[in-house]
């Protein structure tokens, strides 16, 4: 196996991350492009996927084949596995040969039974109190990932994680603006209808939210929809 020129690869990763950021694409497109590019830049990678874990859910928002999805399904079922371990805080987790792996025994049995994967490299993307994520690359060959592959993977994960985080934050900001606009519209409707001030209108929204166990913005959206029904 030819040893990659790490400097050239790093420059290529930098350029990829810059272009991805400059395109201002949505977060879903960012991670889809991340997983596709990972196959070409990380030596030994045959499959790639993103694992996202919260307190109650494990999802695979992007994958190049079905195998990463299947392996995340197994991790969700058993609440254990290399991708969850990386997402939870380990910067890099490697499985050199799943046949002889002793960690995550429940995961190992099902992974061997349901996939041909033997080598796994899981790289943390971010780890917060609510959401954790890892980039994972896989191979059907044992000992597929060299030290150079691990170094390239770490560099790739670090650079692309920042782009993904920026895209996620922008989407959160845009959703917050949209929510504020909807709440503002519904408050105006309530103020006019009941001859109340802005704070009283918001208090009414909040009470409706609590009574129906529904987010304030969802209550507001329903009021706006009732007042301005969609035209067929």
From TrEMBL:
Protein name: GAF and ANTAR domain-containing protein
Alphabetical list of SUPFAM superfamilies matching this protein: CheY-like (SSF52172), GAF domain-like (SSF55781)
Pfam families: ANTAR, GAF_2
Domain ANTAR: 163-224
Organism this protein belongs to: Williamsia deligens
Keywords for the protein's UniProt record, in alphabetical order: Kinase, Transcription, Transcription regulation, Transferase
Gene3D superfamilies linked to this entry: 3.30.450.40, Winged helix-like DNA-binding domain superfamily/Winged helix DNA-binding domain
């Amino acid at each position: 196996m030819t040893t990659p020129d790490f400097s050239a690869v790093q420059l290529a990763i930098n350029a990829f991350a810059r272009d991805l950021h400059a395109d201002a694409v949505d977060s879903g497109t960012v991670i889809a492009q991340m997983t596709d590019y990972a196959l070409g830049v990380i030596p030994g990678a045959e499959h790639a996927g993103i694992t996202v874990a919260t307190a109650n859910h494990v999802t695979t928002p992007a994958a190049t084949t079905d195998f990463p999805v299947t392996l995340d399904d197994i991790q969700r079922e058993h609440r254990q596995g290399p991708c969850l371990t990386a997402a939870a805080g380990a910067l890099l987790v490697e499985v050199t040969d799943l046949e002889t792996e002793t960690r995550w025994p429940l995961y190992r049995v099902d992974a061997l039974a349901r996939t041909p994967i033997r080598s796994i490299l899981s790289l943390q993307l971010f780890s917060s109190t609510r959401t954790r994520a890892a980039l994972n690359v896989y191979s059907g060959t044992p000992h597929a990932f060299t030290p150079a592959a691990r170094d390239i993977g770490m560099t790739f994960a670090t650079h692309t994680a920042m782009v993904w985080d920026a895209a996620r934050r922008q989407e959160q900001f845009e959703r917050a603006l949209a929510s504020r606009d909807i709440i503002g519209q519904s408050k105006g409707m309530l103020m006019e209808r009941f001859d109340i001030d802005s704070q009283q209108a918001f208090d009414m929204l909040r009470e409706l939210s609590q009574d129906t166990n529904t987010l304030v913005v969802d209550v507001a959206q329903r009021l706006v929809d009732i007042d301005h029904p969609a035209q067929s």
